[in-house]
Amino acid sequence: MNLGYNRFLLEKSFTNLLLESNIKYFNDFKEIMMSMKSPIAKEILALDGKDIDVPMNYISTTQKDDTIGFFIDNKTKESDFLSKVIDPGCTYAGFDILSNKIEGWQGERKTNAPNQDQIGLIIKKYTKDEIFNITGIRQSNNIYHFRSATGQDYLIGTSGVVRTNTHKDNANPQEVKVGRFANKVLQKVGYKFTDRDIETFTNEFKSKIVLSKDKFSRFEEVKGADIKYWYNEKRYDMRTTSTLQSSCMRYDNCGQFLSIYTENPDVCRLLILKGVTDDLIVGRALIWTLTDGTNFMDRIYYSKDSNVDLFKEYAKDKGFCYKKRQISSTDEDILFDDDKLYDKKEVIVKLENFSFRYYPYVDTIKYLDKKTGILSNIHTRGKTTPLESTEGDCEVCEGEETIECEECNGSGKHECNECDGRGNVECDSCSGDGDIECSNCDGDGEIEDEEGNMSKCEECNGKGRVDCDDCGSRGDVECSNCDGDGEQECRYCEGEGNVPCPECQ
C-alpha cells in the first residue's frame, strides 16, 4: 500500500512539474528519437526547445532501457552541464575589455579562443545588454564565458558555437518510465495516442537503446568499387546538413575521379557510418595504410558533430591514428587516443596503381609523385603533383584544364610572317633603295631651259635621284602587320599561351 501511495505521489509530482517550464533534450536522447519509426517519437522530437510549460530540462537516456533521465528546471543551472566547442567562432571587440572585468578570470588577458572539440563548462552567458553596460561596446551576439577542463578561461560568441554535451558526474538526473514521459508530455500539447501506440513506442525505444549500446555496430569498412558507391550523395542521409552533405566529391560525375581509391584496396579503404537505415550513411572517412604499417583515418565527413566523436572512438578501438581537427590541412596534428602524437612529420602511402586520367580532391595526403606512386602530405616542387582539384585532376593537364600551346611555346605570340621578326619591311615607294627618281629632271640630273641650254638639276644636285620621303631614305618602313614588334598574336591560342587540354576537353 505504501509502495502504491509513493508511486501515486511521484506521478502527481511529475504531472505538476510538467505544467511549469520548458523542455530541452540531450543529444543521446535526440539520436534515439531520430532513429525511431514511431510517430510518437517524431512528435516528441519536434518539441525540443519549444515553449511548452514543462520543468524538465536536459532529457537524456539512462543505463536502463525503459527510462529517461531529467532535471527539474528550477533546480539546475548551465554550469551543471559539460559543453563541447563545435566551432570557436569569431572574436569580438569587447572580449579583451570583458575578460579584464571578470573576477577570477583564469585565461589570458587578450582575445583568444578554445580549440574545436574542447570540453568544459559554461560559467556564465553575458547578454548583449550586459556586455554593453560593462564594455561600452555594442555586440551583435551574446557571449559565453567558457572554462575548459584544464581550467583555462575563454570568451566565445553564442551563435551556435557550443552545445551541451552531457551532465557532470555530480549532477544526478531523476528518472521516469519513457512511456509515462511520452504520455504526459504529449497530453500537455494536446496530442492523443492510444495505449497500444504508447506500448509500441516504448518497445521500439527499448530496442533502439539496446542496439545503441553496441556503438560500433553501424560502422563498416569497404574498399574497391564500394568506395565509389558510398561516396555518391544518393547514399547520404539528408535529414541534417554538415560536411558530408557539402563534400565536393559527392556528385555523380565525381565517381570517375576516385580510381586512386578504388584501385588500391591494399592501402585504401573507406569507413562508413550507417544511419537509421542500412542504405544511407551519416559519415565517412578514408583509412590509409601507411608505409610504416600504421592505419591513418583521414578527415571525417559527418552529418552531426556527435558523429565525429564516434569515428574517433572507433579509431581508438582499432588502434588507428586520426586528425585532431577535421579540416583539409596537410599539417594538422595526427593523434593516437587523443594525446599520443604520430611522431613522423611526413605521412606516406605507396600506391600500386597511380596512373589515371582523373584524380580526386584529397584532403591530407594529397601530393603524388607520378613516377613512383608515393603519396605524401609534403609537397616537393618539381617532383609531386597536388591532388586538390574539385573537378578531377587530368593526368595530361594536371587539373589545369589547359596545356601550353605548342605553336608559340606558351608565349602567346609568334614571329611575324610579314617581316620575319624584323619589325620592318621594304619600302614600296623606293623598293628598299632609300631614294627615288627625281621628278624635276626625270632622273637625268639635268634640265633644259627655254633656249635649249642644259644645266644641273638643283633638286637632285645633278644625281637624278632624291631621298625617299616615305621611309626617310632608310629603305624600309614599320611593318603594319605587327606594328613594328616583330611578333604577332598566336592564332592557335589567340594570345593566351595555353590551349584546351585535348585529353579532358
Summarize the structure.
Helices cover 20% and strands 24% of the residues. By secondary structure, the chain is α+β, with helices and mostly antiparallel strands.
Describe the fold and architecture.
This protein has 505 residues and is an alpha+beta fold. Among the domains are: 2-76 and 171-212, no CATH class; 79-165, no CATH class; 219-350, Aminopeptidase, CATH 3.40.630. It contains ten helices and 30 strands. The protein has helices at 2-17, 27-35, 39-46, 95-101, 128-135, 178-188, 195-212, 225-231, 259-262, 305-318; strands spanning 56-61, 67-72, 81-85, 119-126, 143-148, 153-157, 162-167, 174-177, 219-222, 268-274, 281-289, 295-297, 301-302, 321-323, 334-336, 340-341, 348-350, 367-369, 374-376, 385-386, 402-404, 413-415, 424-426, 435-437, 446-448, 454-456, 465-467, 476-478, 487-489, 498-500. The strands form nine sheets. Strands 9, 10, 11, 12, 13, 14, 15 and 16 form an eight-stranded mixed sheet that branches. A five-stranded antiparallel sheet has the order 6-5-4-3-7. Strand 25 (446-448) and strand 26 (454-456) form a beta hairpin. Helix 6 (178-188) crosses helix 7 (195-212). The chain starts with a helix and ends in a 5-residue tail after the last strand.
